[in-house]
User: What shape does this take?
Amino acid sequence: MKTRISVSIDREVLSRLDREVDNVKVFSRSEAIEKIIEAHVSEKKKCIILAGGPPEKLYIKELGCYRPLVKVKGHTLIEDIIRKARKANYSEILIIGSKELLSAIYSAIGDGKAVDVTIEYLEEKEPLGSGKTLAMARQQIKNTFLFMPCDHYFEINLEEVEAYHKKNRQTATLVVYSGTEQEWNQSSIVSLEGNIVTKYIEKPKKAETHLTALMIGFAEPEIFSHIPAGRINWSLQENIFAELAKQRKLVGYLYSGKWKNVHSKKDAEELSSQ
Assistant: This one.
């Protein structure tokens, strides 16, 4: 809901403000003022990196390291992910996972000062599914947030996805791979009507489409209301996204560029060779 106000502004400041109106991202003085105020009064943007589940499932024996610590183009994969979040102005990073994995990540990147972010490590003591992993950040989240897995390489413009999410005003937005270069893995398959995800099926027996949802996206705090309390297994893919799709509260952002779910030595080698 918008509220009309009256303000007095210095002419020179007003002239500089008018230069912000480019009719591409900003279409009026009012919108320019709102964006500037929001940037100054809003809390720092938060990014949740999901690294939950049994730590052994994230360990690559052939390389002797966890997936997030695979070297990609001169950096560990987790550092590459954080750098991309920072580029999109997300400076507060929450990494959620097992004690073993968090210790290994901390040894590699520490508190994040080297990449101009603040990292908070949240220990998951009992793996109960990705939905429960996400729920551990509930108290720290007040506004729109970015979420990503700890083992994906991507070249997505996160700022564009965020703008798309805010424009559509739904509970969550997922990046949906629509290209042909990746091997179809028959998981996280979605159906779209326009940009609304109408079906989200994890590992379908027979898929209606080849559109693959990545675990990369933006969400509103409302998403936590879809995660029940108590000691119960709850998955983002099988429970939360599937339910949001039924309610038409899940948006798909189509993407056909590079990405890789780094699960093995082969995946790491393919990235290094690109």
